[in-house]
Structure formats: C-alpha cells, structure tokens
From TrEMBL, chain A:
It is found in: Membrane. Keywords: Heme, Iron, Membrane, Metal-binding, Transmembrane, Transmembrane helix. It comes from Streptomyces montanisoli. This is Succinate dehydrogenase cytochrome b subunit. GO terms for molecular function: metal ion binding. One of its GO terms (cellular component) is membrane.
TrEMBL record, chain B:
Residues 1-102 form the 2Fe-2S ferredoxin-type domain. PANTHER family: SUCCINATE DEHYDROGENASE, SUCCINATE DEHYDROGENASE IRON-SULFUR PROTEIN. It comes from Streptomyces montanisoli. The keyword Transmembrane does not apply. One of its GO terms (molecular function) is 2 iron, 2 sulfur cluster binding. Belongs to the succinate dehydrogenase/fumarate reductase iron-sulfur protein family. SUPFAM superfamilies: 2Fe-2S ferredoxin-like, alpha-helical ferredoxin. This is Succinate dehydrogenase/fumarate reductase iron-sulfur subunit.
Automatic annotation (TrEMBL), chain C:
It is found in: Cell membrane. This is succinate dehydrogenase. It is an enzyme of class 1 (oxidoreductase). Residues 47-452 form the FAD-dependent oxidoreductase 2 FAD-binding domain. It comes from Streptomyces montanisoli. Belongs to the FAD-dependent oxidoreductase 2 family. FRD/SDH subfamily. Signal peptide: none annotated. GO terms for molecular function: electron transfer activity; flavin adenine dinucleotide binding; steroid dehydrogenase activity, acting on the CH-CH group of donors; succinate dehydrogenase (quinone) activity. It is a peripheral membrane protein. GO terms for biological process: anaerobic respiration.
C-alpha cells in the first residue's frame, strides 16, 4: 500500500558521477592527484640541474628512451603527456562547471561581507586559471621553445639557463610556483576529503601533509630559477 | 543601549529589497536578539509601519526556525542560534546589519523569511528508514555499538536551520545532507538502504540547485550544533562506496 | 456576579466507549471489535491532520502507510519544527530492561496516581501497554537513543519514579523522536500519500450535517483562505500553555485549532489543569518573550534556598549559611528538594510572595550547587550537568559554578484539552484529537517523560485503528463543496474576523493584549488559585476582550505574510479560552494535581482532594462568546488504583 518511493532504475556509473556535484569533485580530486604525482617527479628531475649539464641532459634523454625496447622512442613520454593533458582538461572542465554552478547557487551577495576562509581556499579558482595559463607558457618556453629566441632542441640545460636569464621570466615562474603552492595546500587536503579519506583523527595528518607537499614543491621548483639568477647554475 | 539596525526589507518574493535603517533605544543586554527585533516591531506597529518579518518559534535553539545573518555571520557572532544570541554581545552605539539567508535554493519570502522547503525534499528523497508503524522488531533485537550510536546522535543533532547553506560561499547544502546521511548510515537499522539513501539524497540536493562543496569550511564554523566538517568527508566516502556498488 | 460564572449542568457523559471487562484486555478487545476499511477502499478516504508534532507526525505517517489519503497542515515552515522538538528529558516505557520490577501495570499505576486520580483507567492502561511498542518503533526508525557499552539501550529514572524506565537521547529526546516521525512522514509525502501544507494555519473547523468534514485554513504566505474537505479531521495541534503568554511553549504554539473546534461543538475538558514546571530560568525583564526550561534533574544535586530575611539584597555568596532558608528541606524533610513539580513550584511562589524572592523583581529562588561541587568535585558536576550550566550561562551571563542559579516556575504543559472518548473522538463525530490537544491520559498532573509517550502512542498506535473504525462505519459521506451552507458560513466567519482585526486600527499591539491576559492568568489562575482571585479574573477578561476589539492595531493586509495578523487572531481565541480556564478553576473547589485551591488544604497546608464531589472530568460545552457554558460531568471510576492522598512531608 505504501507506494515504493525509490525506483530501481539507476543511471550508469559514469552518468552518476558526471551528473553529481560530488562526482565532479571526485573527478577533480583524482585528476588533481595525478597531476600532483607528476609534479613531484618533475620537480625531482629538475633538481638534477644542480649536478651539471651532463647529468641533466642525460636525464632528459633517458626520459625519451625509457621503456625501450618494449616502448618505442619517446612513447613513454607521450603517454605521460596524454594522461596529463587529459587530467588538465578534466580538472579544468569540472572546475569550470562547478564554479558556474556555485555562483548560480549564491546569486545574491551579502551586503555585509566578511572573509573568513584561508587565502589558499579563496584563491583556488583564479589560482587555477593562473596555473592553466602558466602551463601554456611553460610548454611554449621550455618544451617547444616557441617563445624563446635562442632555443636549441635537445639541449635542455642550456635552454633552462637561457630562459631564466630573463628577469621577467623568473618573475613569471616564481609567481606561478607560489600559486601552485597555495593551490596544492588546499587542493590536496580537499581531495582527501572528497575521496572520503579524511576523518577527525586523520585531519591533522592530511593538513600537515598538504602543507609539506606545497612547501617542498614550491621550494623545489623555485630553486632552479633562483639558482640561475644567483649564478649558482650557469 | 542604543543601536542602529540596517535590516533587509523586501515586501514579497517578487519585490525588490533594500537595506533599511532603524534607530532603536532602550535595548538591554539580557534581551535575546529576537527580543530586540520584537521591541523594534512593537515600535513599528504603533508607528503604523510594517513590522519586520522573521521566522522563529521555540526560542530555545532547537526547532531551527530562526536564523538571520548578523554582520555577515549566520546566526551572529556566537556559535549558537539567533534566538539564543543575547544583546550583551553587542556594544552601545553599534550598527548591526541584519540580512536573510542568501542562497539560490532559499528564495526570500519576505524580509528575513526564506523558503527552506528544499531541505524537506532532500529528507523525502531518502533521509529515513523504511519502517512502517507496527513492523518493528523488539528494540533489543539488534545491539548497536556505542560508538555507532554516539556518532549517529552527533549527526542527528542537526536542527535544519540552514545556517550552513547561508554561510557557504557556494550556497551548498553538503553539511545538512551529510548530517542526515551519516546519522542513518552508521546505524544497523539504516544499513539496508545505505546506498540508495546517499545516492538519492545527493541527487536531490543537486536538483534543488544547491552549489557544490569547495571544503571552505564556513558551514561547520556557522553550525550552531557543531556538526563537524568531516561529516562531509564521511558522506563522500558513503557516496563513492554506493556508486561503486550500484555500478556492479 | 459575572454572567459567565452562571454555568449550567447538562447531561453527564455516560458512555466513553471504553470496553468493559478486565482492564488489561480492553485495548485488544477494542481493536478486535473495530471495523476495518478494505485496503482497496482506503485511497478514496481522505483524512485531515492538523499539526506535525509527535502525535500528528506519527498519525499522518501511519495513516498514509495504511493507504489513506492524508492532507496535513502545520503553521511552521517545515513539519520538523513542531514544538515536540523541544522536549528534553525522555520517554517512558514499561520495558523492564533493568529488571527492577517495572511492568505495564506499574506504569499504569504510577500514571493514574501521578495524575492525582483524575484520569481514566482504561486510557491510561492502554497507554502503558502501547509504550512498549513505541520504543521498538522508534529504534527501527533510527532514533539514536542513549546506549550502554554493550550496545543495549540505556534508561534512567525520572520524575520521582522508583524504576528506571525513561529512554533518552541526551537532553534532546523530543528532537530525536520528532525527527523519526518527521522522516516517516517525509517518506509518505515524497510517495504522494500525504499532501503536506506547511505555513498553513487552520482557522476553523467545518462541521456539515453533524460531522467534522474539513477545515478552513489560511496560507500564511499569500494570505489566501482555502477550504479542505475530508472524511475525518484529526487535531494534533498541541496544548494551550501560551494563553499565559510566558511559558516554555514555542512562541507560535497556539490554541486556535482546538478552540475553533470547541466553538463548533467539541467539548473542552479540564482546562484548569495546567502544569507548572519548577526549574525554569526566571524572566529578566519586561522584554521577556518566553521562558526556558532546565531539566528537573538539577534538583537531584542542587539545593534550593532563599534568604531568611525579606528584602535581603546581598549577593548570594555573602549571605551566611545560618541566614539562608532551605525551605524545601525544612518543610518536607523526607523528600527535600525532590518533592513533585507542583509542590516545589508552589513553595517557590510562597517564598517570593513573602518578599524573599531573589533576582530582578524578586521572582526567583536560588538553586545552589556549592555543596554538590564540594562533595563531588567540579569535574563530576560538570560531567553531569555541564550542558545545562552552559545553557544557563548563555542566557543569564552568570556562571553557576560560582554563583547559585536562579530559578522560577513556569507554565509548561496543559493536561486539559478537547474532550475525547476512548477512541480519541471528540463530541463532534469525525473529529479526533490526539497528543497534548486532548485531555485524555494525564489527569490533573502529568509525570515527567510521559508527554512524548502519549503523543506517540496516540499517533502511531491508538488513532489509526480507531479512525479506521469510524471510517468503516461511515462509508458513504456525501461529497462537500464551498456552496454547502456550513462551509460558506465557516469561510465567511473567518474572513470577517480577519477583516475586522485589520480594520480596527487602534493603538495597541497584539502582543500587548497577549501579555495582559497572560499576566492576569498567571497572577490569578497560576500556581495557587482562590475563589476571590478567579472571580476577579472573570470580571476582568470580558473588559480586556472589549478593549481588544476597540484598540487593536494590526498593520498591513490579509493578502500577504502578516505575522501581526496571525498573532492577533490567536489572541482572539486566548481571550475566550482564558475565561474557560478560570471558570473551570473556579468551579473545581478542590485541590488536585496541578490545580491548587487555597481553600482546599489539609491540616499541614497541603493540597486536599475532594473525591466525593469532584471525581469527574469536567467537559464544557460552548454556548457563545462570554456566555455561560454547559458543564457535562464524566464520572471517573477507580477499579484498580484506589485513590489516596499524596503526602511528601
């Protein structure tokens, strides 16, 4: 007599995920964590520059031959590039969709405004945009060399040193890395919550880990332009 | 004390609203915030003006009817409901801004009154245990471990006032929804509907036009009952678990 | 002499429809004898339920589950906010989980005795029987009751009862039980079985061809007056404690639904039985809008006192021990601070009347924890009462660990209400009243943790079969529409009343009248009542009423959200109900339970019942505003629990 209040027909898993705010956040969290893992490796590789051009250029070459003979030359690198591109797109699209939705859900602002959340939390959206633009610049600068007049393919050490000899390019990189740090500080902890990993007892651990990751990545990445500027690497 | 109040006045849902300034004198520090508004309304009625409409009922901090944004804070500067906020937390000569809950899913009805029926529909979509009257087994048939019972209670304390939505920069209802999902999902009685409950309630929450969660934490700061932010984490976990199971 | 006091006595109520036979078999007999509605026919039967508290919420959900079409109303913006939510202490049930000698019979016995022998044995026994099922039902719904480490339900003793039968969810039992009922109701709303109308207030009852067939209600947002028709109407609209203005009720709790039903022919029973709770936070000034209750459990460890000398305005900590009067311990040495609610309340009033009250206006007594802190240590006191102390401090800004609390009694619950028979049906066929809105189970005094029990018993278990019986016996009720003269009259009356309220345009606010009538009642018909005082009140009430219609000012229009209009319309009914409360108190020249007549006392000054004269429920019939009502007596028989005089000295 009491009518059934639920239907058993459910949308497919991808549909459920994509249609839900919680699902979209999951997409953001997973893509974010993938990019984070990539960044850790990227930063680690960057630091090889302190061991001189031989080590650094050798490492860059190894990246192209890794997986051989199973994989063909640069295939591994391309796989990583494709995965990263997909992650960036997924992250950006869901972020854009969720942001639009969030704005619509709060159409009227309070007359009496008050900011209480941390700077990192408030700057997630614009920080994300800055990082997106930076990725484009970074690829044009040090991967394709399009914007770097003296770019020589196959000589990453020289290219890096040349790029960071421009003061304004250093500023771009340092600002972007600071934005990255803030983004990771809230993003990593946030991803943990979205994926349901957080709890009252683990909250501190995740916060500490997020701060640590943000700090290490920022310092690790900033170290290179600073080293070039100060002449430590030349 | 003497106060300057700037209150959001809006004749009805379709009308334009504006902040209107009132001066009020003779407020004592033992008055509750709502009693201060009562005093203003008595004055307005006698002056032939329309009194300020606001929701309120139990005035004990449990029914969840009251709630306004005071100087940018949902329920004001103390961590309690508006009815339990007392004027001793303000100073003589203060200017106080009073605004309704702001969220797309909570349209203003009049002045400080908003429509929170979206919450009821979220509950209707799955925030219950299907246990028709008379069908219940003996209460002691299922023992509930104390930690589970305590956790259920902690979440069940939610009074549905909507402060979480009002405080959220995205107008999200995640804290409210998660409180109810967790209350029932940690109990053995709630287990048979564990997956459908979280999937349906989250879907309904989205349909109602609430925003998404950016874990800004404003909701938990504003919650007069202290529902923790980790409640949202637990719901996310439940949701992912349910999605995986439903996908099989 | 006041015209209103010349009431006449009508036919006594002889048949309450309670089955006879052994008391423990009556309820199952009634259920068996009840006619059933064929499940296939239930969808075509509509039931209106007014109110969504424990009784209304439970009834709406259950009736819808059984297949009836339910149309339900509440004035709040959500059914979850009904004032049952504010109940703190707990809910009684004769589970005997503690193996401490509890049983259905003992709960029955305690409730009849606690009600000071002014309730119906059949009803109370049924309540005790059903109490057991309530706990099962609530647990199945996911109500998070307190539990022991073994995972089983915890219980505590409450309200001076010697067994531990009170189930609780910290200090929020009412909230948790209500959420259980609300969730069950929400499920039925989503399923389309309940048509829910929040922010809609019942303003009149439609009685057509001798039967309750619908209501007139106002949409509080648009102001639209609409009619709703049904095969039966259930009132679950709560008590009328707010007639006293200051009470522990919610601000908008009101008597309108019940009073309008009374005006349409439903008898109103025992209106003078109003319960006063001894441990409330005293008022702090004229602005006070309501009173806040603190759990009675505070009296387990706190000591109540006032200064020995009248007008002693030294701070409490400077008053030496030998200049304090621990009056409860002095007058009632064996029970001390744990005497029942009514006695503790009256003693506090007496102390204040002697000019020894403390705090603003001298309307308060101290509840001192200094000894308890010394004995148990501050940590132990905090563990036990921390949340209450916190609540007290938030409201008063005084720290009860350092200064004694100030408390004063306040109106809390009304045992009186619409007269109902064993089937919870009023004297208007097809109109049922459940929960606090009826008068049925508590007699002249309600025991702690019994209100939640009664509300849920009525809603989940008692009403559904009784209502089914009525519907089964009245299968072919003619369809109704707005053209029926009874409907048109009810609508016109409602619209006229609202129009009149808006048109007076006087110089006094609705609240000012509400306060005035409330203060008058509290003063003359509160904790202690006298013939002289009640007559004075009865003289004064018609004057206030007359003044109300001359001087009321309601701004705005009727076509919008107009809270002043809502309030004014409720005050109209308080101004009539107050009169009946006073008359009932005047006619009952005995003291019983919460009704204390100064003239009826024992040698030691305690309340004295007069069983030969007053062993009946007084059911009043309405005859017109301000005109003397008709009294119908329902004699009470006590076959199982024999009346004794209470003594606590």
């Amino acid at each position: 007599m009491a009518l059934a209040t639920r239907t058993d027909k459910r949308p497919s898993l991808p549909r459920t995920v994509w249609d839900s705010t919680v699902g979209k956040k999951t997409v953001m969290a997973v893509s974010g964590l993938l990019m984070l893992a990539y960044l850790v490796a990227h930063m680690y590789g960057n630091l090889k520059i302190f061991f001189g051009p031989g080590t650094f250029d050798g490492y860059a070459h190894w990246l192209r031959v890794v997986g051989e003979p199973f994989l063909h030359y640069t295939w591994a690198l391309w796989i990583i590039r494709v995965v990263m591109a997909a992650a960036v797109v997924a992250h950006a699209v869901t972020a854009y969709q969720l942001s639009r939705r969030d704005r619509a859900a709060r159409p009227t602002k309070y007359v009496h405004r008050k900011a209480r959340t941390s700077y990192a939390t408030r700057t997630m959206r614009w920080g994300g945009v800055i990082l997106g633009l930076f990725i484009v610049w970074h690829i044009l600068d040090l991967t394709t060399g399009t914007v770097q007049p003296g770019f020589v393919p196959g000589h990453p050490y020289a290219n890096v040193v040349a790029a960071f000899h421009e003061w304004w390019n250093d500023v771009i990189y340092i600002v972007a890395m600071l934005a990255l740090g803030l983004h990771i500080q809230h993003g990593f902890w946030s991803a943990a919550q979205t994926l349901g990993a957080g709890s009252k007892t683990r909250d501190r651990t995740f916060k500490t880990l997020a701060n640590l990751l943000a700090l290490v990545l920022t310092l690790g990445f900033v170290a290179v332009p600073v080293a070039v500027m100060t002449g430590l690497v030349s | 004390m003497r106060l300057t109040l700037r209150i959001w006045r809006q004749a009805n849902a379709d009308a334009e609203g504006a902040m209107t300034t009132y001066e009020i004198d003779g407020i004592t520090e033992d008055m509750s915030f709502l009693e201060m508004l009562d005093a203003l309304n008595e004055k307005l009625i006698l002056a032939g003006d329309t009194p300020v409409a606001f929701d309120h009922d139990c005035r004990e901090g449990i029914c969840g009817a009251c709630g306004v944004v005071i100087n940018g804070d949902a329920h004001g500067p103390e961590r309690t409901t508006t009815c339990q906020l007392h004027m001793r937390h303000f100073e003589d000569g203060d200017t106080i801004d009073v605004e309704p809950w702001r969220a797309g899913a909570f349209p203003v009805v009049k002045d400080l009154v908003v429509d929170r029926s979206a919450f009821d529909r979220i509950i209707g979509s799955g925030g219950y245990v299907t246990a028709p009257t008379g069908a219940a087994p003996e209460a002691h048939a299922t023992a509930v471990p104390k930690p589970a019972a305590d956790s259920a209670f902690e979440h069940a304390e939610c009074i549905g006032c909507g402060a979480c939505v009002a405080a959220c920069p995205n107008g999200a209802a995640m804290l409210f929804t998660s409180a109810k999902v967790n209350h029932l999902n940690v109990l053995p009685q709630g287990a048979p509907e564990r997956e459908t409950r979280v999937l349906d309630m989250v879907a309904r929450m989205d349909e109602e036009g609430f925003g998404g969660c950016t874990l800004a934490g404003e909701c938990a700061t504003a919650c007069p009952k202290g529902i923790p932010l980790t409640s949202i984490t637990s719901m996310n976990r439940e949701w992912l678990r349910a999605t995986r199971k439903a996908g099989r | 002499m006041n015209e209103y006091t010349r009431y006449t006595t009508g036919e006594p109520v002889v048949d309450t429809k309670a089955p006879d036979g052994p008391v423990e078999q009556r309820w199952s007999r009634r259920r068996f004898e009840a006619k059933l509605v064929n499940p296939a026919n239930r969808r075509g039967r509509t039931v209106i339920v007014v109110g969504t508290g424990l009784a209304g919420g439970a009834a709406g959900a259950t009736l819808a589950e059984q297949g009836y079409h339910v149309v339900q109303f509440c004035y709040q913006d959500s059914p979850r906010r009904a004032h049952s939510i504010a109940a703190q202490g707990g809910i009684n049930a004769a589970k005997n989980y503690r193996n401490d000698g509890d049983s259905i019979h003992r709960l029955f016995y305690d409730t009849v005795k606690g009600g000071d022998f002014r309730s119906r044995e059949s009803n109370v026994h049924r309540l005790a029987e059903v109490s057991v099922e309530i706990i099962d039902q609530c647990v199945a719904q996911g109500v998070p009751f307190a539990r022991e480490y073994g995972g089983l339900l915890d219980t505590r003793s409450f309200g001076g009862v010697q067994v531990s039968r009170t189930f609780y969810a910290r200090g929020q039992t009412g909230q948790q039980l209500l959420l259980g009922a609300y969730q069950a109701l929400s499920r039925q709303i989503a399923a389309g079985n309940v048509e829910m109308h929040p922010r809609t207030e019942m303003l009149d009852l439609i009685v057509a061809d001798g039967r309750a067939r619908g209501i007139v209600a106002r949409d509080l947002i648009t102001g639209e007056i609409s009619t709703y028709f049904a095969d039966a109407v259930v009132l679950a609209s709560g008590g009328y404690g707010n007639v006293f203005y200051l009470s522990t009720n919610a601000k908008n709790s009101n008597a309108t639904a019940a009073w309008r039903a009374h005006r349409r022919g439903a008898y109103f029973a025992n209106p003078c039985y109003t319960q006063i709770h001894p441990t409330c936070i005293p008022r702090s000034g004229d602005h006070q809008s309501k009173l806040t209750l603190m759990s009675e459990s505070l009296r387990n460890d706190g000591r109540i006192w006032v200064p020995e000398q009248r007008g002693d305005d030294r701070p409490p900590n400077e008053i030496p021990e030998d200049e304090r009067d621990y009056y409860l311990e002095r007058i009632y040495p064996s029970y001390g601070n744990l005497v029942p609610r009514d006695i503790a309340s009256r003693a506090a009033k007496n102390a204040c009347d002697e000019g020894r009250g403390v705090g603003p206006g001298g309307q308060g007594v101290y509840l001192d924890f200094a000894d308890a802190i010394r004995r148990m240590g501050r940590a132990a006191v905090e563990e036990k009462y921390g949340n209450l102390f916190e609540m007290y401090e938030r409201i008063t800004a005084e720290n009860p660990y350092e200064v004694p609390m100030r408390i004063y009694p306040a109106i809390h619950y009304t045992m009186g209400g619409l007269w109902v028979d064993y089937d919870l049906q009023t004297t208007v066929p097809g109109l049922f009243a459940i929960g606090e809105a009826n008068f049925s189970d508590h007699g002249a005094n309600r025991l702690g943790a019994s209100a939640l029990m009664q509300g849920l018993a009525d809603g989940y278990f008692v009403l559904p079969p009784s209502l089914g019986d009525y519907l089964a016996r009245n299968p072919g009720l003619a369809p109704l529409d707005d053209d029926h003269p009874a409907v048109a009259e009810a609508v016109a009356e409602t619209e006229d009343r609202l129009r009149l309220l808006l048109s007076v345009d006087g110089d006094r606010t609705p609240d000012s009248f509400h306060k005035e009538i409330g203060e008058l009642l509290w003063e003359l018909c509160g904790m202690a009542r006298t013939d002289e005082g009640l007559r004075k009140a009865l003289d004064r009430i018609p004057q206030i009423r007359e003044e109300f219609w001359r001087r009321i000012k309601v701004p705005g229009t009727g076509d919008e959200l107009n809270q002043a209009l809502e309030k004014a319309n409720r005050v109209v009914d308080y101004l009539e109900l107050a009169e009946l409360v006073c008359l009932d108190a005047l006619h009952r020249t005995e003291s019983c339970g919460c009704h204390f007549r100064e003239e009826s006392r024992t040698g030691t000054g305690e309340a004295a019942r007069k069983d030969e004269e007053f062993s009946y429920a007084a059911a009043w019939e309405f005859t017109g505003t301000g005109t003397a009502p008709v009294l119908h007596r329902e004699d009470l028989a006590f076959e199982y629990v024999h009346p004794t005089q209470r003594s606590y000295a």
